[in-house]
Amino acid sequence: MRRKRVLPMATLLLCTPLLAGTAPAAASPQGAPSGPLRILLTNDDGYNAPGIRTAFQILTAAGHDVTIVAPLTNQSGTGTKMLSGPTVTVKHPEPKVWAVDGTPGDSVAFGLSEVFEGRAPDLVVSGTNFGPNLAGLATHSGTVGGAVAALEYGVPAIALSTGGFAAPDPVATVNAMSPTVDFAVKLIDRLRNRAKSGPLLPEGVGLNINHPVVGADGKGTAAGVAMTFQDAQQPLKPDFTDSGDGTWKVAVKFAPQPPAKGGDVEAVIADKIAISPMSADWNAGPAHFAATSVLLAGLRP
Are 146 and 130 in contact (CB under 8 A)? Predict the structure, then answer.
């Protein structure tokens, strides 16, 4: 359930003085508004990809004030990487759209610091992206990375993905993006109604949502909604072949394992929407912390 990061943000900023002025301050906890939300919309497929444009249209049609702050180019698989250079190129090609030549994390950092300067958005939505963010794939997902960046700054966040482990059909997957975002609208309404004057989500908790592609055309309705955890399996297996000259050829094999009961993979295989709560830190749960403490009891320098 824990997400991997390159370095904690505080360490990055201390090691990179030139960037210190670009990082937004952590957002103060705030209650959910009773009306439409101010939403920062990002992704990892790029600011003009079908998923984020579908999300923009549907969330806007639902009455929300949506601003796209997303990567200029495809950043799939960049995970939580961010703030890796002293400058960044940003384009503003149309109203309510900002394109950042960096990762999803860079986009969220720029959005919170500049586009939403002085008043954090009510919610960051990352996606919907093409393909699943299930099991070990989620740990390295740029879409999930964008949501994690928001959580690090104290802003509620949701990651949206469309697809499962089955070989994707591009047309069906694009068609399924509309049901994905339609569900997100219902979810946001539920969170807002339940929050009343409190926060949309518990502090530090985000949601990784995987919506299946249902039906041959992708326009079908999901079989249900399941609260899940991130399946521990890593379905991508790296394979290296020595070329004999100091270089190695790299290939990746897709080798999924039987799904864990109650996990996100099991739910999407059953055509259900998987909702996995997630946090942005590296802390182990209480049971693992206690077990590790027993292992290390009595250790001295």
Answer: no
